[in-house]
UniProtKB/TrEMBL annotation, chains A, B:
<keyword id="KW-0663">Pyridoxal phosphate</keyword>
<dbReference type="InterPro" id="IPR036868">
    <property type="entry name" value="TusA-like_sf"/>
</dbReference>
<comment type="similarity">
    <text>Belongs to the class-V pyridoxal-phosphate-dependent aminotransferase family. NifS/IscS subfamily.</text>
</comment>
<keyword id="KW-0408">Iron</keyword>
<dbReference type="InterPro" id="IPR015424">
    <property type="entry name" value="PyrdxlP-dep_Trfase"/>
</dbReference>
<dbReference type="Pfam" id="PF01206">
    <property type="entry name" value="TusA"/>
</dbReference>
<keyword id="KW-0411">Iron-sulfur</keyword>
<dbReference type="InterPro" id="IPR015421">
    <property type="entry name" value="PyrdxlP-dep_Trfase_major"/>
</dbReference>
<dbReference type="InterPro" id="IPR000192">
    <property type="entry name" value="Aminotrans_V_dom"/>
</dbReference>
<dbReference type="InterPro" id="IPR001455">
    <property type="entry name" value="TusA-like"/>
</dbReference>
<dbReference type="Pfam" id="PF00266">
    <property type="entry name" value="Aminotran_5"/>
</dbReference>
<protein>
    <submittedName>
        <fullName>Cysteine desulfurase</fullName>
        <ecNumber>2.8.1.7</ecNumber>
    </submittedName>
</protein>
<dbReference type="InterPro" id="IPR016454">
    <property type="entry name" value="Cysteine_dSase"/>
</dbReference>
<keyword id="KW-0479">Metal-binding</keyword>
<dbReference type="InterPro" id="IPR015422">
    <property type="entry name" value="PyrdxlP-dep_Trfase_small"/>
</dbReference>
<dbReference type="GO" id="GO:0031071">
    <property type="term" value="F:cysteine desulfurase activity"/>
</dbReference>
<keyword id="KW-0808">Transferase</keyword>
Length: 458, 458
């Protein structure tokens, strides 16, 4: 098996495993207790906090260990918003944040707050001037990920940090995907991360709140972790998390070069070996290990199953059952094709042969799925004026497949009207037009569902 | 070292360690993913849920795994209160609940709710009729622990469950201290527990919400754990927690008899070998492994340090730095002496010799601490009318020590007026009177601090 889904969860690093085993013996007691076992646990906890602070580039007393990255995000955003309540109740998030950030924003909105979403470009990157334009007198917080989890695009955190600093608004950075590769540069105020993304065990998140940032923890708290993470500290896992962070950091520079070369190979070769594919995400400013592409006329979930049979574990932003938001809000915000989406995220240590084997297997797998769905062959023929395709009751990618089958049957300048009641069509028909150089005219309400109008240009 | 603080955290059970190691290999992937590693993780998670449901006596789909017992309590209480918001905003808790329950109650009060606290008797037990009397039309929830964490007293959960059922009010049970010994009997609605109390790893709590109980999770959630515990599941720890629960349950009946005999020995022998000691907590309806006593004229923290030097790790309800609430709200609610408090909580497997060594060492340790503090010798002499003891600026146990030194200097019927500005005196002077058969007359405001009046009766 080749596990290519490190962006979901990385396998436990051998150093983490060792550290976990060692601290199971020394770190099970309550670090708040005064007796020997408690003091030993306290020492381990203090040392872990110092080591994390060094890796993050902050003070030890700014670090709280939480029970997950999600918890760090929820706690951090809620606490920062509450701390700035007098300033106002306006929150800015990018359109491509992780679901934990978006869920926090929804909860804030449900409680009476206002949320502005900053759009991204076709590569998935935020424009710092768009952030600046979204700022208001009553803006309490800005949230921006360090790098995107679905497409690997690195965000301009330092630039947005400057914008925020100039406005006196704190910046919350979800660093879950990048912290294993290096510290987050720039002037951020709060940071969250998740240990199992860098090869640490699950059950450990980080919440960093810079000194001077107003923060009021929400909900019941206790005396642990500066009142920011109630409940007994998960010390063996914390020790293991920190040990693996140090270990991956020591290997990061070298491994980044190697993985970047492998993902570059996938970026370049996939469009050569698979027809009708769009590679998405920034080509340069991106994480080393993530590459994402979408295949026309393919159902993401079917593709994922076939790749799994071939021994490859990948993720899909268009898979209905493996993700919270369907179709991927990230691909939607980027305006790229979401159907037949595959995210390959290589864990450190991925062998070159495995990537080659993947590239060897992929064309046959995609062709197989397309054949089952009756997708059009790369050739087409010509005829009529305006054609209507009735795809009512059919789920994505069928409407696009049917559109592609008939587009050649109208003359250049003629139109195809696709009737569909599947929400994904609203994204995928315009995306298909952009990819194939056809004109997307727009949508109209139909007797049932929606009519999507496409004009043939070539 | 003899670790006698299992009620804080039990050492990892060997079975938990084994299960943790095994599932580090198989259980690190995201159970929500569709590929092989994800399916394996999902199977482990499903099996763990089934096993826990069996041990708790509930349905698998009623169980959510949380990141700690504290988190289970916070989430459970907040969700149950929100689910019953239309009924009213009145919460009932016992006076001796764990701090996580009391913190939840405080947060509820801060948000506009009303909290009633049900008193306990001198043994620490709740009276079901007192619970019934506290119920109101607008009562949303009743919280009662299955057994007390500081003194081991078992609460009448089944009886209170009947009271609640009759009133149509859900009952939340904090089962942290008892779940390793057996399921909670009776008709409860929600239950919380913590794996590291039964020899599981830290980082795992249980929240059980019975079908039909109205529950609205608060704060941002995601699709994991029925929307009750957001964030990546800590699967290796969950598997280990469940394995150790099964293991301790298999040994529970036999080990309960053995530990009960050992704690019974401590209950009986401590008052024989240490003068001026009060053993607190219910003598019969109690957990097998916990015994708590308070020593007059002793500072709990000093005692704890001396016992640690002798190789015993115990906890103290009167230690300022090892606990959230000082002095112990449990001992206060029971009306028993809080000074010089020691909680011995034996982990399963505790050797008889270690308990004997503890009983051998304790008298000398207590005597040594008393000598340093200048406590009175067990003899006394006689004289005057009313004496004033100025203990202003002196911390507990000094005011009680000074009271004890002079009580013999007034004739029977005479009074001692103790001036003190230490809050603990308000608890400990009446408790001393009860223990020594003297009359506590009451308190009066003084120019500085408070005057506590004691009449000599014998």
């Amino acid at each position: 098996m080749s596990y290519f889904d490190a962006a979901s969860s990385a396998p436990l690093h051998p150093v983490a495993r060792q550290a976990l085993l060692a601290s199971l013996d020394d770190g099970w007691a309550d670090p708040a207790r005064l007796y020997r076992e408690g003091r030993k646990a306290r020492m381990l906890l203090d040392a872990a906090r110092e080591a994390v602070a060094e890796a993050v580039g902050c003070r030890a007393d700014e670090v709280a260990f939480t029970s997950s990255g999600t918890r760090a995000v929820h706690t951090g955003i809620a606490g920062a918003l509450a701390g700035r309540r007098r300033v106002g109740r306006h929150l800015i998030v990018s359109a491509v944040e992780h679901s934990s950030v978006l869920h926090s924003a929804e909860a804030f909105e449900a409680g009476g707050g206002t949320v502005s979403t900053v759009a991204v470009d076709r590569a998935g990157a935020v424009d710092p001037s768009a952030c600046a334009a979204a700022l208001r007198q009553d803006t309490a917080l800005v949230c921006l990920q360090s790098a995107n989890h679905e497409v690997g695009t690195v965000q301009p955190v330092a630039e947005v940090g400057e914008v925020c600093r100039a406005a006196g608004v704190p910046l919350f950075v979800d660093a879950a995907q990048s912290l294993g590769w290096g510290p987050v540069e720039g002037d951020w105020s709060l940071l969250a991360a998740s240990a199992h993304k860098w090869g640490g065990p699950s059950g450990v998140g980080l919440l960093v709140v810079r000194k001077g940032v107003r923060f009021v923890a929400q909900g019941p708290v206790d005396e642990r972790e500066s009142g920011r993470a109630p409940g007994f500290e998960n010390l063996p896992a914390i020790v293991a998390a920190v040990a693996s962070l140090r270990a991956v950091r020591a290997e990061a520079a070298q491994e980044a070069v190697r993985l970047r070369e492998l993902t570059e190979r996938i970026r370049a070769r996939v469009p050569e070996v698979v027809p009708d594919v769009e590679v998405v995400g920034a080509p340069e400013r991106r994480l080393p290990g993530i590459v994402t592409f979408s295949c026309l006329y393919v159902d993401g979930e079917a593709l994922l199953h076939e790749l799994d049979r071939e021994g490859f574990s990948v993720s899909s932003g268009s898979s209905c059952t493996s993700s919270t938001l369907t179709p991927s809000h990230v691909l939607k915000a980027m305006g790229v094709l979401s159907e037949g989406n595959v995210r390959v995220s290589l864990p450190p240590g991925t062998a070159e042969e495995d990537v080659e084997r993947f590239l060897g297997v992929l064309p046959g797998v995609v062709a197989g799925v397309r054949e089952k769905l009756g997708a059009p062959a790369p050739e087409t023929a010509v005829r009529a004026e305006e054609l209507v395709v009735d795809s009512l009751g059919k789920r994505c990618p069928i409407p696009v497949i049917e559109l592609a089958k008939v587009i050649g049957d109208v003359p250049v300048g003629g139109t195809v009207r696709v009737l569909s009641d599947d929400e994904a069509a609203r994204l995928d028909i315009p995306a298909w037009c952009e990819m194939r150089g056809q004109e997307y005219v727009g949508e109209e309400p139909a007797e049932r569902g929606t009519a999507y109008l496409v004009r043939r240009l070539s």
